[in-house]
Amino acid sequence: MASSLWQPFTLGRVELPHRLALAPMTRNRAEADGTPGPLVATYYGQRASLGLVITEGTQPSADGQGYLGTPGIYTPEHVEGWRAVADAVHAEGGALYVQLMHAGRISHPDNTPHHRQPVAPSAISAEQEMFTPTGPQTTPTPRALETEEIATVIDEFRHAAASAIAAGADGVEIHAANGYLLHQFLSPNANHRTDPYGGSVENRSRFVVEVARAVADEIGADRVGIRISPSMPLGGLDEGPREDVHAQYLHLVGELAPLGLAYLHVHHVGDDELLRSFRDAWPTAVVVVRYGRTREQIADDIDAGLADIAPLGRWALANPDVVDRLRTDAAFNEPDPSTFYSGGESGYTDYPTLAQA
Prior knowledge:
Its cofactor is FMN. Residues 337-357 are annotated as: Disordered. Residues 5-329 form the NADH:flavin oxidoreductase/NADH oxidase N-terminal domain. InterPro entries: Aldolase_TIM (IPR013785), OxRdtase_FMN_N (IPR001155), Oye-like (IPR045247). By secondary structure, this protein is of the alpha/beta class. The protein has one domain: Alpha-Beta Barrel (TIM Barrel), CATH 3.20.20.70. Helices cover 31% and strands 17% of the residues. Strand 3 (20-22), helix 1 and strand 4 form a beta-alpha-beta unit. Helix 1 (38-46) packs parallel to helix 2. The two termini are 23 Å apart.
C-alpha cells in the first residue's frame, strides 16, 4: 500500500492515525423507536481502527426518516444510545461523526413514527420502490415544504447536531447527497419552487448553505463535515447536463468554503475536473469515496492531491480489521449482500477478524 495512506492527519478537532475512514452505510439495525442499541455500539467499536468513523444516515426528526430500522438523533433515548456507540468507538481509539440525514421524499408513511406524508422541496414523487412493513411500495407524492417551514427543518438539524455532541460524538456530517432532502433541493427535476429556495443555482443552494451555517454555529465549524454527490442519479434525481452540474456545485462549494467546516465529503462518480475544482476551492480536508477501486488504488486520490481521506465501504463492512488486512496485505472477507439490511448480528457483527479466522 502507498505510504501516503499511513500518514497521520488532523481533521477538525481530531487527530487521525492514517488516511482511511469508515464510509457511512445504512444498516437498518436501530430499535423500533430509532435508538441505536448495544449491537450498533459493537459494530462501530469493531471498526474504530479506521480512525474516522462516519455513521449511517441518522434522521434529525420523525419527518426525516425514510427507511425502517434507521437511527434517530432527536430524543433523549437516541442520545443515550449514541453515547454507548461513542464510548465504544473512543475505547478503541477512533473518532465518531454522526451523519445527519433527512430522507425527504425517499420515504413512506408506513416507515415513520407519525405515518405522515413525506416532505420535499416540491410535490413530485421520486417513483422509487422501497421496503415497508407490508412489503415493497412506491414512494408517494410528497408534500412541498412551505417557505416558513424551512426554518423549522433547519432547527431540526441544529438540534440533532447538538444532540450528537451531547452523546459524545466528535462531530457530525451533513448529508447533502445520494438523493435525500438536501440533494433534492439542489436538483432541478425535484425542486420546482418559485420562492427563495428554488429556481436559480443560488436559490437551490440556499437551504443547504443555511443548514450548514446553522449546524456550524451550534457546535463549531471544525466539528462539521458535509457530503455531496454531483450527478449522482439516486432517488430519481437528474441534475441535468455537465455544465449545469458544474454551475450548481461550484456555486454551492464556493458558498460553503468560507464557513470553515472540518471537511467536504465527495461521493465521486468520475468528473475529476470538478473534483479538482473542489480541491482548489476548499480550505480544509477533502474526503473522497468512489466506486470500483481496487485495494491498490485506495490512495490514488490522496497521491494525486485530490483528497486527504479515503473512506472504505463494503470492505470495512465485511472486515472489522480492514486496517490490519491492508497493512499486511491479507485477504479480505467477502461481504454478504443478503444481510446488508436484514437486521441482527448475521452479516453485521459476526464477520471474523484475522485472529479469529
